[in-house]
Write a structure and sequence with these properties.
about 300 residues; mainly alpha; elongated; binds protoporphyrin IX containing FE
């Protein structure tokens, strides 16, 4: 079976982290600070230094990641270590501070660290879960192929609608214009497909045509025109073309839904990094301020 990033190399980094935590905890219990435990004792300094070094090392991951992009095995090892050692920081820093937290720059560093770590948990969750969902959703097609097919269907639908009536052409065109796929991460999260718009109108128009009845005045004006057209003047050939158009747009709807979902999954896999990475820089700044100020007021 393929190793997950959590069980990489027989969970090597989990055990290293457990050993690090057990050692720190043992030292904390054994140590007699001669007062309240805090960051200023020798153990406090030692744990603080371990914490600071870990943070700097964790931040190097971005550089590592780009350097190892061609060597996925190594990258997975780094990520596994990143996750476990990063999580260790919570306890190490609490022990460093002797569990004394106040409203100050030190605690700001601690809070930023917690946000970075918890956003990391979310990252692990999406990394473990979303690739499978994406594969299942795509059903072996690529996103490019799906998008290409969507475009092709759009063109065919427009040509078909054009042959029926300009008003129907307008409805189809509007539904295409209302389909928003792609763009930046935010747009991807809100990806949408306008096919329902056209399908709704077309279905209602066909139903009305079959029943030869008028629509209520609350319906949209374009639909009015269409129903009017279909109920009155349309030939059977045009009715067939309408059904074909519905088939086409339904197929497009299925595809566009898949593409939108694919984009949303990918956006979710990226969006948390917009918290994780910038806040890790804020953390580094707060940490430097913390260390400098600790020495100042020593
Ligand atoms: C070289 C690394 C570090 C040094 C030299 C250091 C130094 C100190 C010192 C001297 C104190 C005691 C301050 C006091 O009692 O007023 C302290 C407390 C503290 N440190 Fe550090 N520290 C380091 C790393 C870290 C790291 C990595 C974090 C977390 C991001 C952190 C968070 C805290 C917190 C939350 C306190 C408690 C502040 C309070 O009493 O309100 N420190 N540190
Ligand atoms: C204070 C602690 C941490 C710092 C400073 C930190 C920093 C970073 C940095 C700089 C990156 C590189 C992102 C990039 O350039 O694309 C990264 C990636 C990542 N971090 Fe952290 N991290 C920390 C803790 C954690 C924790 C605790 C976890 C998980 C539980 C975690 C999970 C991840 C994941 C999954 C990635 C993405 C790897 C990828 O895109 O291939 N991080 N982190």
């Amino acid at each position: 079976m393929h190793d997950s990033i959590l069980t990489y190399a027989k969970s090597r980094y989990l055990w290293i982290s457990v050993a690090l935590l057990a050692g720190s905890l043992a030292a904390y219990i054994w140590h007699d600070p001669g007062g309240l435990p805090n960051g200023g004792t020798w153990l406090g300094y030692t744990l603080g230094t371990i914490g600071a070094l870990l943070i700097v090392w964790l931040m190097f991951f971005g550089i590592r990641k780009r350097r190892y992009l061609n060597n996925v095995g190594t990258l997975r090892g780094w990520l596994s270590a990143h996750i476990y050692l990063g999580t260790c920081l919570i306890l190490i820093v609490l022990l460093h501070a002797g569990f004394q937290l106040g409203w100050n720059i030190h605690t700001l560093a601690f809070l930023l660290m917690l946000i970075v770590i918890f956003s990391g948990f979310f990252g692990v969750y999406v990394y473990l879960r979303y690739p499978n969902l994406m594969t299942r959703n795509r059903e072996s097609a690529t996103r490019e192929a799906m998008l290409e097919e969507v475009n092709e269907i759009d063109l065919n639908a427009l040509a078909l609608a054009d042959g029926i009536d300009p008003k129907i052409h307008a409805v189809v065109l509007r539904s295409i214009e209302n389909t928003k796929l792609g763009g930046g991460v935010w747009t991807q999260l809100r990806a949408r497909d306008g096919s329902d718009l056209a399908l709704d109108s077309l279905h209602k128009a066909i139903a009305a045509r079959e029943k030869k009845q008028d629509m209520k005045t609350t319906e949209m004006p374009t639909m009015f025109a269409m129903v009017d057209f279909l109920a009155g003047r349309a030939t059977d050939k045009q009715g067939d073309a309408m059904r074909k158009l519905i088939d086409l747009i339904s197929r497009k709807k299925g595809l566009a839904t898949k593409v939108a979902r694919d984009m949303q999954y990918q956006a979710m896999m990226e969006i948390w990094l917009y918290i994780h990475v910038p806040l890790s820089f804020a953390l580094l700044a707060a940490l430097i301020a913390h260390i400098v100020s600790s020495f100042f007021y020593w």
